[in-house]
Amino acid sequence: MDLQELNKMSRIPLPYSQKVIDLFRNPKNQGKMENPTVTSVAGNPACGDMITFYMKIKDQKIIEKITFESYGCAANIATASIVTEMIKGMSLENIWKELTWKKVAEEAGGLPSVKSHCGILAVGAVKRAIRKFYQNESSVPSWIPQDLTYEEKQAMEEEELAEKLAKKLNVPE
User: Fold this and answer.
1) Under CATH, what is the fold of the domain 14-169?
2) CA spacing 20 to 30 A to 112: which of 13, 20, 31, 122?
């Protein structure tokens, strides 16, 4: 296979659902939030997708408002948008127990198998934000396991890579 054939193959469009295409073109809850209660970054250095979630949390531990910024593919933007719609108004405990990347993929109308990591990143970022929120309050509830979840571990890859690069380049925080 020559380079020209390989380039043609790489430009074959992925079978995205209409919902993913619509949310890629018109994402909901996109943008940076002023004075969030908590933020969380997730990404995958292998593909370059990155998400930042901003959350306002009410006293009753309910998501009052959630927005996101994204750098990545259509599936990354769409899954971040879907997650914001799914969890707005939910309690942190219910989000932790009920939100899965499979539910996000279902809500998206399905994702190509090579893009399932986008749902994993979105859920991982949300769970990292919830963990961070409780750590900031110095009162982590028993329903949050001590060990990071699979999704949280996946979400951390980009952040760790960015920190390493910043140190090598002497970039101020």
Assistant:
1) Sufe protein. Chain: A (3.90.1010)
2) 31
